[in-house]
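Lecture notes, unit on protein representations.

Consider one protein chain, 958 amino acids long.
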Amino acid sequence: MSLIHETDFGTPESKSETMVTLTIDGKPVTVPEGTSIMRAAMEAGTQIPKLCATDMVDAFGSCRLCLVEIEGRAGTPASCTTPVMPGLVVHTQTERLKKLRKGVMELYISDHPLDCLTCAANGDCELQDMAGAVGLRDVRYGYEGENHVFAKSNGAANPAWMPKDESNPYFTYDPSKCIVCSRCVRACEEVQGTFALTIAGRGFDSRVSPGMSESFLGSECVSCGACVQACPTATLTEKSVIEIGQPEHSVVTTCAYCGVGCAFKAEMRGEEVVRMAPYKDGKANRGHSCVKGRFAWGYTTHKERILKPMIRERIEDPWREVSWDEALGFAAAKFKDIQQKYGRDAVGGITSSRCTNEETYLVQKLIRAGFGNNNVDTCARVCHSPTGYGLSQTFGTSAGTQDFDSVEHSDVVMIIGANPASAHPVFASRLKKRLRQGARLIVIDPRRTEMVESPHVQALHLPLMPGTNVAVLTALAHVIVTEGLVNEAFVRERCDWSEFEDWAAFVAQPKNSPEATAIMTGVDPKDLREAARLYATGGNAAIYYGLGVTEHSQGSTTVIAIANLAMATGNVGRPGVGVNQLRGQNNVQGSCDMGSFPHELTGYRHISGDAVREQFEALWNVKLNKEPGLRIPNMFDAAIEGTYMGLYVQGEDILQSDPNTKHVVAALSSMECVIVHDLFLNETANYAHVFLPGSTFLEKDGTFTNAERRIQLVRKVMTPRNGYADWEVTILLAKAMGFEMHYNHPSEIMDEIAALTPTFAGVSYAKLEELGSVQWPCNEKAPEGTPVMHIGGFVRGKGKFIITEYIATDERTGPRYPLLLTTGRILSQYNVGAQTRRTDNVVWHAEDRLEIHPHDAEQRGVRDGDWVRLASRAGETTLRALITDRVAPGVVYTTFHHPDTQANVITTDFSDWATNCPEYKVTAVQVSPSNGPTDWQKAYDEQARHSRRIAPAVEAAE
């Protein structure tokens, strides 16, 4: 193995279809119009020296190293900023150019430390490379004059010198090594879109500055790593590289955080990760990253990670470390006893959206074929199950319609109930770039999110009251229909016309007008009408939505309403448009695809279908139950009733992530055997009897499927520290249960998935190695996958319009609970925080805070930073207040990343009418001053600490 070297062409690729031919160093070169001479030369195999140029950002032309000569033109233009033209004759190496480049490089080196042997960038320094490329052998200028290199000059303090900034936990900034090429500044602006960096001063006093001469940690920097990636010297360097040294080999793999599915190069020394570098050929991220994927992989070696199996008879007992054989035998015996005592349906399992497709497939196979029932569910139950229902009803598929590249063709983007800047930051950066190019943005969200506040982006914000999504979307449809903005040709050709007429008549009713619904939604009718007109007439219009749509009692209705809008305006079936859900976890799409719902086998085919079931029975050599099993909420209810007594949970912390924590505690406490298969003793493990240590994404082979249906390889870069990859653990558990599954590698599992699943029929590891990734459907009709769905027609045939009547949630405010709580995520943390809380990301978010409007805080005597009691009909907790006008009066907001807060003790059992997806986003609450943790929090913390005791190992007597 060796390092994967990616070619840097110096300037971005031109997308022009017009080709231009020129001559470079005597060779004819044909490239798209608009290509720079630098890139054209590189494509022809000639590397022109450069320092300020890189193909992730636009050409800048400041380093004066990439000069060329063009016949018939005076001077020596910069090749990075000079576009190709037909017939040009370019020379990249002449005596004149050699002399100029050496002179430029001398000036750079004269104000640069010459500590190359001990420098962290030794072996990976472009300045060093370019000095060699131009043949620099001597520097005529010394350090006697002004310089930025030494802290003292002639015995006195050097005012031009600046100390190293080590405030960021992941990288350092050493101003003495900065050549002011501006690559970091441009990467922050053009790639990330944060505009956190600038060049302060002029001339010799120029230097990179985070904000107004702030520290990196104290500035607006979001630690995406784009600046570090762009830096050609050791000015910006990962601390891991400084500590470990340069990597010696790399492996391309897929990030295990959010549903964007970024591709990374795991750069290694032996089995130690040196850094995670974003992979330029990754089709989801195109070489960009966020703080989590780029830096927050330290949890894989965290001291709290459990590496040995553990068992106990009662949850009051301490854990006892045992062998794999004993743990698996104990678990199997418990489950067999439960089934013998309570019946075959008394056990089940929950698959993981953090594990691979292959691992998820095996868990549902174990439950259906090994346990003999369909009691399998997944975390999508509590996030995007309404997406599956709503889009399958209207379009015929349970997934988003576009690839992420599609946003580059959008003219209007509507974001509903999502905050990509925090939850899907790499996609947000690509979106913000398009918005800065002129696309328009509509944001429908109770909060003024980071997307609304993005630099150089003008957003139309509709701040609705939580729980009124359907009313707002129906009002948008009212404007489109009553003002004649429907794309009638599209609807007549692609949709059921009679169903459209019924829907149009419904939305046109006066009760659905923006003016009539404003009293419920709180949205200004003028703004809503403007948004509707913009979406319908602004060109290619795309909708992106998140959990603020699905986690409601009308979550499925809202998804249907979104689909109705897209069909009515013809915004489906081509690049730049579509309906796109932003999935929260790395493989939540895959876990759904793999048959993790109790009523569906792989590919969303109902378990009751005889023909489908017979396929699986023939390959698995077992008879399957045709009755759908229990959903997660049903499992909890049955456990409390005493009919569901055994649960296998792989990679999911249901106690922290599911609503109404007290109800979940009651359910888990009622079970006779809970098996937790995870990396850490999470909150659910407090009530477990068996703990099976899991493996991280760095320790296994497999595939993830991201939010755009993109299937990508996950590649093993180190030996599993626990001894087994997760797919191997599930096979061993199945064997202990008496159900044998024989696989030597995850590729064999994928072959079985492909044989049973029409949308995956063309997927294989060989194809993924060849193409890098594919988007399902991938079959005979689409052998290389399907980037954009529903081109020329919907999967179901005719698009289906469904009437979306707004029905207010049963969760109401009143005198006791006058405020509405909604929840969400923050950039630095992920889901329940099990991974990110065990990294340096806690520097940015050490605790959950309650956002409250100044008016509501003043009424309650609450100051910023005060402890407050947050109470609902379900329970209460305490946390510190954050006073902000990002939330409207009457609305409060918090995150759910920290178990100390247990925000879900507040949320209720209300759920979506079609899928039981919990209503996390609407909870009636009261806020009042507090002196600290509630009695419930204290009791919870005490139980958790007691439950996590591990008995000391007993050594055998000699």
